[in-house]
Every structure is written in C-alpha cells, then in structure tokens.
Automatic annotation (TrEMBL):
GO cellular component, one term: plasma membrane
Domain ABC transporter intervals: 17-248
Residue ranges, annotated region (Disordered): 314-343
Signal peptide residue numbers: none
Organism per entry: Humibacillus xanthopallidus
Topology term for the membrane: Peripheral membrane protein
Protein name in the entry: ABC-2 type transport system ATP-binding protein
Pfam families the UniProt entry points to: ABC_tran (PF00005)
Localisation per UniProt entry: Cell membrane
PROSITE patterns: ABC_TRANSPORTER_1, ABC_TRANSPORTER_2
Primary localisation category: membrane
Gene Ontology BP, a term: response to antibiotic
Taxon lineage: Bacteria, Bacillati, Actinomycetota, Actinomycetes, Micrococcales
GO MF annotations in UniProt: ATP binding; ATP hydrolysis activity
Keywords on record: Antibiotic resistance, ATP-binding, Nucleotide-binding, Transport
Length: 343
C-alpha cells in the first residue's frame, strides 16, 4: 500500500522542487530546414520533501529535458525551476542533489569498492563508503571489477555514487533502461530500502509497473506537458481500467457521453463509428448504464492494456515520439551529460 504525502515544505517553507511554466525549446542548426522542437511545453510541478515521484511518459515526452533543468544541466527557455528554493545549480553545488542518469562513464578496470572510494575522495565529506556500498546492495560484489559486472550491477554502482553526498534529493533518469526484469526488480528493491529513509526522489521511467511499484505519486507527461498527476493508486486505476464499447444511435451519443462522464471512474468517452468507447475503472456500472437508460446495444468489454491506458491518458502510444525528433546533425543529448554523479 502506498501512502501519498501531500507536498510538504521544510522549515524554510520551500518545497524540494518547484517548476513554474517551464518551457524548453531547441533551435534547429543554422541552415537546416528543421523546425524548432518544443521539448517541454509549460510544466508546473511542486514536489514536497520526502515524496517519491515517478515522471512517467512515452519516448520524447520531455522527461529527460525536464530533469536536466531540475539538475541545472540546461537552462529553461522560459519559466522557472527552483530546488529547495534555490536555482538548481546552486542546490547541486551545495551537495543537496544527486543524479543517476541513463548512462555515464565508469572506469572498467576499477573494482566496485575502488570506484566508490575514488569518487568519495573527491568530496569534502561523504557518508561512509561501506555503508553506501551496503545500501546500494553491492556488498557481495564490492571486489569485482566494473567490467565484469552486469548492466544492472553497474547501475547500482551509479546509485551508490549518487548516495555518497547523502543528498536530500535524488533524481534518476530511467535508471533501469536496458535491464531485464530481474535486474529491474533488484534495482528497485535497493531503492525502496533507501527511499524509506525520507529522501525526496524524482525518477523518469517508461514503465507503468515501475512507477506503480515504487512511487507515491505519478506525474504523467506527454508532448512536454503534464497530462495527469496524482497518487499512484489513482493513476494506476485510471490506467488499468477497462474499455466498454456499445452501439449508440447518433441522436443519443451526445447525452450518453455526458451521462457516462458523470459516472465515477469514467476517464474517457469517445465516438468511434457507431460506437461509444468508454474507458472506466468500473465496467459493470458503465455496462448497466449503456444497456439500460442509454439504449445501447452490442456491448463489448475489454481490459485496457498498458498501451491503451497510455493512449487514454496521453492521447498517444508509449513508443510514439511527441515533439518531433532532433534535427539531423544535432548530437543525441545523452552525450551532453558530463557525468553520472552531479554535485
Ligand atoms: N538537444 C536537442 N536538440 C533538439 N531536440 C532535442 C534535444 N534534446 C531533446 N530533444 C527533443 O525534445 C523532445 C523531448 O526529449 P526528451 O529526451 O526530453 O524526452 P524523454 O521523455 O526523456 O524521452 P525518452 O524516454 O526517449 O528518453 C524529443 O522530441 C527530443 O527529440
């Protein structure tokens, strides 16, 4: 069971993260015929202390670009990003924020422990190395060379490095990308143990299951905007609902749509051909209304898969890019991220 703390502020009265009308556009290369890409299109978000928030969205939704602004790696085109009431870079330099990004150079010939020690030596003060290794679930692997560790284990190492400064905010950008189900599971188990200590966590993911298992709150983004934001259980039920369709006459369609939208748990009603297509958490209630009062016929009920759920909530499928691709010649933005640990 998840509980959803309402966004809280610390004694300074400032939330952990505050994004106001955040916009980021990328200009095409000079001479190119490509158009401007609006990666983030007016995001408002407040994350309270101790909240664990999933930033969930399909490819190209603007997740990474938003997190980059939270980390001060890139400046907004307009709008503001504040972290603990300060400009992001200042919060990062102050040691309050760490990040685990999708990829990032690790030295392959060092062991896990040597890597953690080396990075620890670059800080003025850190949590004890052994404690960090334990918390990242690496105790049994600490003598192993990085090159001999799986992708999942290397990602746990990046997580350990991010824990070194004992940050108040941990930002993770699709930390389990490319891992198999078992490795993903292990990674989140490790995270679970750590987050229960009260750290604020914001993580980007494509996986509804991951968001569901780990986050208190899901912020669903598509096309650079927030399309749903709420307690995990609520978003989960909206996303895992059923689709009920029935043939309804043209005359009845508009009043039937209005009546259906008044039913609790109905998240979407569309006209497709001669059918009304209803997405709802309580398919029985929808079926009763459709077949009874609304005079529908030829009823069908299907369970909404993740694909459909995404479409119902975002208007597009998980793999569909939302804001156009980067213009030719612009390097993939991951390469621009300098390191996996941001201080
Ligand atoms: N440096 C850049 N130049 C041009 N366009 C960019 C740049 N970085 C990102 N974009 C575009 O901005 C949009 C949002 O990208 P972003 O990486 O933030 O999305 P995302 O939700 O993190 O996607 P994914 O899940 O695939 O990582 C995409 O259309 C992307 O192609």
């Amino acid at each position: 069971m998840h509980t959803t703390p309402s966004p809280t502020a610390d004694s300074s009265g400032e939330p952990a993260i505050e994004l106001r009308d955040l916009v980021k556009t990328f200009q095409p290369l000079r001479g190119s015929t490509d158009t401007v890409v609006t990666a983030v299109d007016g995001i408002d978000l407040t994350v309270g202390h101790g909240e664990v928030v999933a930033f969930l969205g399909p490819n190209g939704a603007g997740k990474t670009t938003t997190l980059d602004m939270v980390l001060g790696l890139t400046e907004p085109t307009s709008g503001t990003a504040r972290v603990f009431g300060r400009p992001p870079r200042s919060a990062v330099i102050g040691g309050h924020v760490s990040a685990v990004l999708q990829t990032g150079g690790l030295l392959r010939d060092l062991t896990m422990r040597e890597t953690v020690r080396m990075i620890a030596s670059t800080y003025a003060a850190t949590a004890p190395v052994d404690e960090v290794i334990d918390r990242a679930g690496l105790a049994a692997l600490s003598g192993r060379r990085v090159s001999k560790c799986s992708g999942g284990e290397q990602q746990r190492l990046r997580f350990a490095l991010a824990l070194l400064p004992d940050p108040r905010l941990l930002v993770l950008d699709e930390p389990t990308a490319g891992m198999d189900v078992t490795a993903r599971h292990e990674f989140w188990q490790t995270m679970h143990a750590d987050a229960s200590a009260g750290r604020t966590v914001l993580f980007a993911t494509h996986y509804l299951e991951e968001a569901d298992a780990f986050a208190h709150r899901i912020v669903l983004v598509a096309g650079g905007r927030v399309v749903a934001d709420g307690p995990t259980a609520e978003i989960r039920s909206r996303a895992s609902g059923r689709t009920v369709t029935a043939v309804v006459s043209d005359d009845a369609a508009a009043p039937a749509t209005a009546a259906l939208l008044r039913l609790p748990g109905v998240t979407d009603v569309k006209r497709r051909g001669e059918r009304l297509v209803v997405t709802a958490s309580d398919s029985d209630a929808v079926a009763r209304l459709l077949l009874g009062e609304l005079g529908g016929r030829d009823l069908e009920i299907t369970t909404a898969g993740l694909e459909e759920a995404f479409m119902a909530l975002t208007g597009r499928s998980p793999g569909e890019p939302s804001a156009g691709s980067p213009p030719d010649g612009i390097p993939a933005r991951r390469g621009a991220v300098p390191a996996e640990v941001v201080r």
